[in-house]
Amino acid sequence: MNKVLKYLGGDRVIWIITFLLLAFSLVSVYSFVPILVKIEGGTPFKYLFKHFIYVIIGLGVMFWVHRTNPKYFSQLAKFGFYLAVALLIFTFFFGMKVNDAGRWVKIPFVGLTFQSSDFAKLALVLYVSRLLMKKKDVLNDWRNGFWPVVIPIVIICGLIVKDNFSTAAILFAISLTLLFLGRVPILKILSLIGGGIALFMFIVLIHISAPDLKLLPRWETWVNRYQNKIADDGSAQDNAQAMNSELAIYNGRVNWVGDWDQISIFGGQGVGDGQLKEYLPEAYADFFYASFVEEFGPIIAGVLLLLYLILLFRIMRIGLNADSLFETYLCIGIGVIILSQAAVNMLVCTGLFPVTGQNMPLLAMGGSAMIMTCLGLGMVQSIANKQIRPKTEEQANTSDEELEEEEILENV
């Protein structure tokens, strides 16, 4: 293991946590897919092999990106933003629809799908980080500083919200965090929040007045989920899923009653012995944490939470030690994206949050989400690799202003 870590650059702790989570994902996905087998057919090994391919691709992307100079991330930020907008527009009109949500784009010939929003999240954080660095001296100016940074946020979140409200809301909150850290005046941030709420309510009123336009095709689903959470009467499918999720967590408790040879100090039903995964349609994704607690127990689930917190800490430390504001904002944005997804999945499974579609980073089954997470971690590792690499005199004198000059290629 030490030889492998010596060959890899960047932060060793991040590599170790990534390897651990991906290894756990192979075990958990194989265990959590019985209901998928029941609905779509096939065997657990089929889904395990597919997930294994994604793991290999994700690690390959992470390794390749972490060997790249971070200055190229800034130079490619504008292209990434335009590509994300194009993908979201394409998905808006031609995306595959599941439960009235057109989030997926099918890759021709190979039969695989990916979510455009997974790429858009990372692209937006990359582009906003670049803009905050370039506009750092004029952020108090509405025309030249504030609006150029805000408009990309509104565009990306506006294109996502139609089919994925939770992702749009989380991404909007992350963007606000970056604006706050970028020292955008607080009154301007509050005006953005107020304007965003007003715009969303205006769209909701149009949808209610003219439902045939289908501006928000999942509006009724959002309302039902909220009402079911408040009522807590188990009358709807979403609420039944939430109740099964809570029951799965209860089944994973440490039980001190019974024969001593059957008692586990870690709790849990044991790998592969969970019962509620048979009734949770998204046990391998949206309700991953519930199935994880049921089989592995609350102690291991606590260790999982600790791993995510350590991962966030290491990413934040790399960002704060960066010699470029762009790199700092990028690390913080990537770290918050990973932790927010994990936190929402845990809150949904424990009944503290309405049912929504956020899976566990690096653990849940899903190709595009895992690959984009590995891509983001590769960027963080690239920045870390730059920090620990022996610096030449030229590198040591590199400043934000020089990085801005290098980005002149983007305007060609």
Secondary structure blueprint with pairings:
Elements: H1 2-7, H2 12-32, H3 34-40, H4 44-66, H5 71-75, H6 77-94, E1 96-98, E2 101-106, E3 113-115, H7 116-134, H8 142-161, H9 165-181, H10 186-209, H11 219-231, H12 237-251, H13 288-320, H14 325-349, H15 367-388, H16 393-396, H17 400-406
Antiparallel strand pairs: 1-2, 2-3
Q: How many DSSP-defined strands?
A: 3
Topology pattern, helix = H, strand = E = HHHHHHEEEHHHHHHHHHHH
Strand content is: under 5%
Largest sheet: 3 strands, antiparallel
Distance linking N and C termini: 45 Å
Question: Which range best describes the helical content: under 10%, 10-25%, 25-40%, 40-55%, 55-70% or over 70%?
Answer: 55-70%
Number of helices: 17
Quaternary organisation of the protein chains: single chain
Task: Strand order, main sheet: write it out.
Answer: 1-2-3
Low-confidence stretches: 257-263, 392-399, 408-412
User: Which secondary-structure class do the elements indicate?
Assistant: mainly alpha
Q: What's the alpha carbon Rg, rounded to whole Å?
A: 22 Å
Shape: globular
The mean pLDDT is 80
General description of the model:
With 412 residues, this protein is mostly helical. It has a domain at 77-359. Helix content is 68%, strand content 3%. The chain is built from 17 helices and 3 strands. It has helices at residues 2-7, 12-32, 34-40, 44-66, 71-75, 77-94, 116-134, 142-161, 165-181, 186-209, 219-231, 237-251, 288-320, 325-349, 367-388, 393-396, 400-406; strands at residues 96-98, 101-106, 113-115. A 3-stranded antiparallel β-sheet has the order 1-2-3. α7 (116-134) runs parallel beside α9 (165-181). The protein is globular. The N and C termini lie far apart (45 Å). Mean pLDDT is 80; it is low at 257-263, 392-399 and 408-412.
